[in-house]
Amino acid sequence: MVSMVFVRYILVAGVAYGIDFGGYIFLLHLGYKPVIANMMIKVVAAIFGFFSHRYFTYSIKERNEIGKHAVRYFGLALFYTPVSSVMLFGIMKLLPNPVYAKFISDVLLFLFMYLITSKFTFTKPDAQLSNNVHGPRINIKKNVRKNKKVNKRHRYGNKVGLRK
In sequence order, which ranges of the chain are alpha helices (DSSP H)? Predict the structure, then answer.
């Protein structure tokens, strides 16, 4: 069964790809070279993708960790954009049509990007995980109390609060 996160990822990726591909064709018509046009429009699509994936795909509404997510996402975009452009350049050696070449290079990188963003980029702290999406909730207060009792036993002997 397909997860709702994957369905939302595909929806956002589709809109981002519309921006990417449409912007690419537009920039080609303005006279930009294919690799330059690809790199320029990837920046615009990445900004849209970051906010859309964070809020819609992965349902992260809190503002905490936005900086960490942004560094991971745009760091990945810094990796993805040159790789995409190198693939585009290589495919254009075999298929000189820049529109078809871009489509092929982007399709080849799509699944890779989903796996990376799901496992590495948009992560939630354990305390925010819900039962129906990512597993059981963790009761942090209970674990902290339990650890304090263990620490007291270790310092004072076998029973809590008794000194040896």
Answer: 4-29, 34-52, 66-94, 98-116, 140-156
Burial of 13 (0-12, 13-18, 19+ CB in 10 A): buried
Does residue 40 carry a pLDDT above 90? yes
Rounded Cα gap, residues 84 and 101, in angstroms: 11
Distance CA(150)–CA(99), nearest Å, equals: 64
Give the sign of the dihedral formed by CA 112, CA 117, CA 120, CA 125. Answer: negative
Spatial distance between the Cα atoms of 17 and 63, rounded to a whole number of angstroms? 26
Per-residue pLDDT tens for 53-91? 999 998 998 888 899 999 999 998 888 888 888 999 999
Checking 130-138 for CB contacts under 8 A at 24+ apart, the result is: 133/5
Break the chain into its structural domains and give their ranges: 4-124, 125-164
C-alpha 159: how far from its chain's center?
48
Structure tokens at 25: 């064709």
Of 116, 98, 117, which Cα lies nearest the Cα of 106? 98
